[in-house]
Amino acid sequence: MSATTLETVCHRTDVLVIGGGTAGCAAAWLLAGKGLRVTVMEKAAVDRSGCLAAGVNAINAWTGPGKGPADYVEYALADAHGIGSRELLLTMAERLGEAALFLERLGVPFHRNPDGSWASRSWRNLKINGGDIKPLLAACIKGRPAVTVLERVHALSLIAAPAPGASPGVRRVVGCVGLRLDRPELVTVEAGAVVCAAGGAAGIYRPNNPGLSGHKMWYPPFNTGGGWAMGILAGAEMTTLEMRFVALRLQDTAAPTGTLAVGQGARQENALGEDYEYRYGNTTSQRVLAWRRETEAGRGPCVMRAGYLGGPARRAIVRSYLHMSPLQALRFLEGEAALADGGEGEAPRDTAVQIEGTEPYVIGGHTASGLQVDAARATTLPGLFACGDAAGGAPQKYVSGAIAEGWIAAESAAALLAASGGARIAAAPGGHQGAGGGDAGPAAGEAAEAVRSLAERFLSGPGPVYSEADLEEAMQKAMDAYAGGRGSGYRYGLPGLREAEARILGIWRLSGALRADTLKGLSKIWELRERLVVARSLVAHLAERRETRWPGFGEYAEHPGEDERELSFVNSRLADPPLLPPEDLADHPPVTLRRSLADGRVLPAPGGGRGATRCP
Amino acid sequence: MSVTFDPSLCVSCGACAAACPGTLIAAGDGAPARILYPGDCWGCASCLKACPARAVRLYLPPALGGRGGLLSYGTEGGRAVWRLERPGRDPVPFPWEPEGEGDY
């Protein structure tokens, strides 16, 4: 591609959904059912985008017979060592059953017991054949007249207008500017409300697997925290970024252990053959800690060992991995074939499968990182709602919880439209009109122009010595070494966090000179910068929570152990949000604050105002 | 790095490129499909499932325990049939038998 100029095309819609993953599809489906015009902006294609590209073999948020939403809330809060919002969890948990029924109606095959009931692994887990769950979810929005799906459009920046009556600096979100990856074009979508259903962030830390296998990770490598970066730059408040997620997975392929553990009763044991699981407790972070402590003590590698499995059960295991982690299924199939040839192989027979912790990810669907939202899933920016991995405060959502939150955010977006006089800003059938008109008009035009100017700069002229990949490596190395990556044993301290911040800011400055000769290259530069924005706020959160709440996910060297005084949410926002990616990120530092776990109110800064200081 | 395209089987329909959640594949332009960013592949097998011609295969990189085998995907009678393919060996189809579906 030689084009260095970008055309701008304008769309108008009632509600814009950013991200066509699980939560985004659910939100768009509900809005279309209310007769609203919906536009979904998706970086890839909704059939296989997001976390469910490979599929999933269990619905892990559900409340089985004899259990109810309150039980789920207690479970999730205990697992998060108390850091989570009861209200957010309850409003989600109330709809988990409905979400599971929704998936079955879409055609997702649920395993059944002889009596016809759903087959479960436990009161929270249902077994499904979910290899094609994502195309089934996508089918419920594709082809509907009310829904416009903009595929291969990378959302670059929110469009925001001054918010009447709000405090100074608070903007109302009225749309988004995206980059088409298949032709040199920017897409401006103006909307009456915006739902951020984008993914969390992978690739901030150095990945476990090396070189060309670097993307063989647990979380989708294409989820680069873009929704968060746009929100942060627009001034949205973030919560609980410091609660990073480290997954305990089968070695190399990062395939789930639950299929063997919950499904087969496989136990973890160390290299001495000792069952060590309950030496450390049984929360998600404690199970990661168990692997780490055993390994650090020289008792690794740790393995999962299932008892002898007969032929059909063995094949059922392989099949369940085919529905979720094809690479692990291939590994088992290769192992089976090697055993059949009289060699040695790893197969789900009577075997020990090595396990390990991943690099840290930042997500809202397993842990509680994300945009600060209230029970309506409204962010702190008027007009912007969030759900799924993008929304913080409610851990353990998984697929069904993401759907539930997508619905809640969609209902709130619809209510906002109704309250503003039912303003249907999509003027004509199809909803695709030229620029101007609605009250987003001037803001949209300015945003598109500013984004175009920045984007075209990345497409023009000779590149610097460095590539986007070089800077990505530098970012991942800095975060790994100084902000508690796997390479530093998930440990961090304040001086290291300061070093991480300095390096992130330096890499940001270098990234301004990057050049791309394709639209995909431009998208990759933008993704790098998205991760830098998130990493910078993440470092501030890590510094601010002065305790070690989830030792499996990370340990703060100066503050070992839990501290009761830290039983609050750590939140942050930029003091001077630039909206668009700034020349120098250092000019826009995050400021941390605390919110109450009980009711989400902003708390007075603890310990003599330290919460209001710029961190680190 | 984990998918390989067989140009002799590829029908240049572009379905793999349309499905890739990382927009990493070039196809549908008359030339056989190819991956433009092999180091960016997640290994999700979306392209295998999209391909009507069993022209895309998944492999496990050696750093991740691969032994040189390939996994392919097709459908027979509306049911998914995965296949382990190894050089010089007969392909091993999966499922071998339908029972045991819910036993994991």
Explain this structure.
The complex is a heterodimer of chains A (about 625) and B (about 100). Chain A has 3 domains: about 5-200 and about 365-450, FAD/NAD(P)-binding domain (3-Layer(bba) Sandwich); about 250-355, Alpha-Beta Complex (Flavocytochrome C3, Chain A, domain 1); about 465-610, Methane Monooxygenase Hydroxylase, Chain G, domain 1 (Up-down Bundle). With about 625 residues, chain A is α+β, with helices and mostly antiparallel strands. In chain A, about 60% of the residues are buried. In chain A, helix 1 runs parallel beside helix 11 (about 400-420) and helix 9 (about 310-320) runs antiparallel to helix 10. In chain A, the strands form 5 sheets. In chain A, strands 1, 2, 6, 7, 8, 9 and 16 form a 7-stranded mixed sheet that branches. A 5-stranded antiparallel sheet of chain A has the order 15-10-19-20-21. Helix content of chain A is about 35%, strand content about 15%. With about 100 residues, chain B is mainly beta. Chain B has one domain (about 5-95): Alpha-Beta Plaits (2-Layer Sandwich), CATH 3.30.70. Helix content of chain B is about 10%, strand content about 25%. Chain B is built from 2 helices and 7 strands, in the order βαββαββββ. In chain B, the strands form 3 sheets. A 3-stranded antiparallel sheet of chain B has the order 5-6-7, with no helix packed on it. Chain B has a two-stranded antiparallel ribbon with strand order 1-4. Chain B has a two-stranded antiparallel sheet with strand order 2-3. In chain B, a hairpin with a 6-residue loop joins strand 6 (about 80-85) and strand 7. The radius of gyration of chain B is 14 Å and the shape is globular. Chain B starts with a strand and ends in a 10-residue tail after the last strand. Chains A and B meet through helix 7, helix 9 and helix 10 of A and helix 2 and strand 6 of B.
